[in-house]
Write the structure tokens for this entry.
Amino acid sequence: MAANDSVLNSAYLVVEYIDSFLPENPLQRPFKYAWTYMLDNYTKFQIATWGTLIVHDLIYFVLCLPGFIFQFIPFMQRFKIQQLMNLLALPWNTGPGFKKVQRTLNKIKTMSSCCVLFRRLKGKSRISENFQTVVMSRTRNFRIRIIKDLPDCRKSRILRHQRDSCTIKMSSRNLTGAFTMSTEDSEGHYPNEAAILGLERFTARVEFFSVARVTAYLVVEYIDSFLPENPLQRPFKYAWTYMLDNYTKFQIATWGTLIVHDLIYFVLCLPGFIFQFIPFMQRFKIQQDKPETWESQWRCFKGLLFNHFSTQLPLICGIYYFTEFFNIPYDWDTMPRWYMLGAQCFGCAVIEDTWHYFFHRLLHHKRIYKYIHKPHHEFTSPFGMQAEYAHPLEILIIGVGLFIAMMVFCNHIILLWAWVVLRVMETIDVHSGYDIPLNPLHLFPFYIGARFHDFHHTNLVGNYASTFTWWDKLFNTDSQYNTYQNKLKSQERKKK
């Protein structure tokens, strides 16, 4: 019996330890309020009897409702079991559903054979004029076409990702030309860019995707083919095409980025400004004993305007040259798909968070703090507008992480804008001073949130990360915050 108790206690401690790393459930507070209200207003008999009856019948009929609605939606009929059996009816090689799966599998096979072909060609020491003929003689299913001429380019990237192509990256010290190889299926289409061939010092050098990455790409594309068309895609495409036809690249990169940044920044600052006039929202304010004053907000606003015109505007004016140097496209056809855009933004957040943690921690050194980082901590009770209120030199130092992330992941101007929107949204949220329970950003694992960063402004120590908590946990710079949270929890238990 004692052995069983020790095992249970060990399992309980392990679960509690893992739970301490997880972010707080945003639904816990409203659920606790509703449960307490139920206990205070109903008897145990009513809860056990009528509560169970309501839970069973309500869930039953609510879950039956989608199936009832699906029969009136033509799009959903493709998922009906009898309908799928008809599509895949024997003989299997004649069903349209099987043909679609077969085409997907054939794509994977052609990708693999293309990689094998490139391995064979890699040993050639020199590329002659009949190189295309050599490739065509190896197999009739491959064709070569020139993408772009890049003479004497030290760093070049051809980054392409669209519905009918895979993402391709190439970097070379002395690249004289670049070719792409496409695969032709039985229907005469070119579904995917298979790999890329570069000419480096007249030696064939090949960089290609592994079969696993190509397979993952095709699986996502196959799933995406079943999803309904985005209703905003057509108007967005029209607006994007109109922008390209009426404005230059410099205007798009400079004024477009400025509008995206400033519009998103002040629009997202607006809710926090309004919350101070709503009594109901004060229950979510972290430091309720330190309300915002008009003087502090006005001083912050003037400092923001100074930073935007003196520091950020010159940096934004350099974005055009940044995109030209790294060959970042603007057109609609090379715009990344939504899932790639989300993955790239996450990668940018990881890189920026790493840079921000170490240099933010460096700026808190006693010999540096008062010269650079101190203006950002003028307000011990932060509010949304204060997110970018900082010394110009600090903006330059911390902003390097944002551009490093762009150099690694950016393959289209839309990614730069999406990353700016995400970064502004995140930094305003952690500086808002309000811990809103239903905040959608809390759904991201290891997200720091407003309460985590508010402790940093209150105590000027620890919690240095900008987005994720893992660096603070790894270097134990969140120990004081954890001690403070445990103290608050113990006080709440004593009140009960």
The chain has a mean pLDDT of 72.
